[in-house]
Amino acid sequence: MDSSYKSELRRLDALFSGSSRIGLAVHVHPDGDALGSAVALSRYLREFRRKETVVLLPDMFPSFLSFIVGTENFIVAESDAAAAAEAVASCDLLVCLDHNSPGRTGLLEQPVRQSAAPKVLIDHHLDPEEGIYSPAFSDTEVSSTCELLYSLLSAMPDISGSGGFPVGMGEPLMAGMTTDTNNFANSVFPGTFRMASELLAAGVDRDGILFRLYNQYRENRFRAMGCFLGEKLKLLPGGVAYAVFDRCTEERFGLEDGDTEGFVNMPLGIGGVRMSIFLKEDKGFFRVSVRSVGDCAASDFASRCFHGGGHFHAAGGRLYFPEDIPSPAAAAEYVEISAARFLQDSAPSKNNMRK
Ligand SMILES: [Mn+2]
């Protein structure tokens, strides 16, 4: 662990000791990393520190991730905004996981900003918002928030002295690291394998986790995948692939949240494709996912064209109608024009960009 973390870790330890009710907040559309880190930390705080905890979710997670959450106590702001705001206000410490700004927490944003409780950040995204989190554990040289939390928890005296990492906390961490790395396909660092190896040795059932993550999809996903690859996927000059799933396509395949998980990564397997863009229609906007390889910055494209951001190679945002485009039917043209412009603009500065 980074040595500058040592004193911050002591502060975190003291904050935990001095709090009685701790809220664990994550980003909108909670993914495996958000849920895994929140659940693992919640278990640690309850079992090792005897604290009350509540996992604070802006909206509901897809059902295939419910095994990560198990019986952990959580509240969903989209289902009951007043109760969620009350839950945030009842906490004397907030830990913000897997996001870099309250702006990423949807309906939780205002309650979090208004809370007088200390706010701790544990995250792996670029550029955390200044002036709100202290201490801020922000590290982009890890696979996932789960990996970063694993190293923080491992350094806590009550865990390091306990003779092995507790399996009940290790399983959600392993699950979150696995989804964020796409099962070790991207954003893998030496510490990622170390964590996986140590958790396996501690008795974490990785086969069980993989089965629940990758062998329990709905049939609808595979029917929709056929349409995605066969009809919807378009290739543009300059190595850009994109696909648009409008409301009509979603209804045709009876899609639910999570059914199109990972589609955006698939076109990167085509030789010469540097950036892949996937749009999925929601109420009044498209959810946009962007993935890239090499020196092509998905995060720049998402922030410039889709009010979003994220990691260098994996980012997301939104495309609103009628604000950004007149109607959903105009999405494809918007993507084509903005991608061409983006490639043109980023071409000369290529040498300055990192791999
Ligand atoms: Mn993450």
Could you characterize what this model shows?
It is built from 14 helices and twelve strands. With 355 residues, the protein is α/β, with parallel strands linked by helices. The chain folds into two domains: 210 residues, inorganic pyrophosphatase (n-terminal core); 134 residues, Diaminopimelate Epimerase, Chain A, domain 1, CATH 3.10.310. A hairpin with a 3-residue loop joins strand 11 and strand 12. The chain binds manganese (II) ion (MN). Manganese (II) ion binds next to loops.
The end-to-end distance, rounded to whole angstroms, is: 24 Å
Could you say what the CATH topology of the largest domain is called? inorganic pyrophosphatase (n-terminal core)
Sheet with the most strands, sense and barrel status = 6 strands, parallel
- Mean pLDDT rating: 94
CATH architecture of the largest domain: Alpha-Beta Complex
Dominant shape: globular
Helicity, as a percent range: 40-55%
Count of helical regions: 14
Beta-strand percentage range: 15-25%
Overview features:
Diaminopimelate Epimerase, Chain A, domain 1; 41% helix; six-stranded parallel β-sheet; 14 helices; single chain; six-stranded mixed β-sheet; 2 domains; 355 residues; binds manganese (II) ion; alpha/beta; inorganic pyrophosphatase (n-terminal core)
